[in-house]
Amino acid sequence: MARRVDRQRADRHHTAGRGALMSVNPTHPLRRARTDLLDIGYLTAGDETARPVVLLHGFPYDVRAFDAVTPRLAAQGARVIVPYLRGHGPTRFHDAATPRIGERAALGQDVIDLMDALHIPEAVFAGFDTGGRAASAAAALRPTRCVGLIAASEDRVADRAALREPQPPRTEWDHWYRFYLLTERGRAGLARHRRAIARMVWRDQLVQYDDDLFDRSARTFDNRDFIAVTVQGLRHQFGDDAGHADQADADRKIAQAPAHGRPAFAIDTLPQNDPSAWVEAALQCMRQGKWRT
């Protein structure tokens, strides 16, 4: 059973979150990995022979969401890999004919493909929002590749039908953009106002909003596939898109995946707001997980 860290923890750690957000400036150079479908841009830190932790960002953020997590994990002996998800930043599709989809099975396979490209047999998976779904999907598709899993409670839900159940009004309000993007007007709005929408979400979700950090991250949304991948993934998540036929078998496997004995944490706060929770959870996964290599 996943151990839970909820949003109240972030509220108790506002000061730590602010300091970490403002003080960390990423200095790790961008690297690239080629998979069958993608040219993936990623950042990395730590000893390349150390136990790996893959950190996966959500919407509307990028690799800088983990600025306060990455160096601390590296300092504690982890090899940290932080990729730009498909449709974000420098990550590109090789072939114009490849469907621009963002559903969980495709995202999960991207994680496994990246690990294969980097010759990483197993790792701790950690992510939030889209990244949490990618982490959970990768763990379900290839359970032996995941030593520990960290994701928000909702992102760990295997049965997508459960996500169509109404949540408390405050929770629904916090995720207003989901309902907007389920409409064609929302898709057009994201295409026209992607920075303004992202800025609103940041101001709503982050303990401390930082203009400079936002401006650096906002370039990620200029990826030509950002709109298509983001909208299809969200609509599939909530049942408004049937999903791509090529992903049907993998999606069923995710939905039917049995419980696994790996360490797991459900963290319902962003890494920018409570980096310590994410660092602590990843370190516990590293220590308690059953490594085969």
TrEMBL record:
Domain of life: Bacteria
Pfam families recorded: Abhydrolase_1 (PF00561)
One GO molecular-function entry: hydrolase activity
Residues in AB hydrolase-1 domain copies: 52-180
Region: Disordered, residue numbers: 1-22
Record key words, sorted: Hydrolase
Xref: Gene3D superfamilies: alpha/beta hydrolase (3.40.50.1820)
SUPFAM superfamilies (alphabetical): alpha/beta-Hydrolases
Name of the molecule in the record: Alpha/beta fold hydrolase
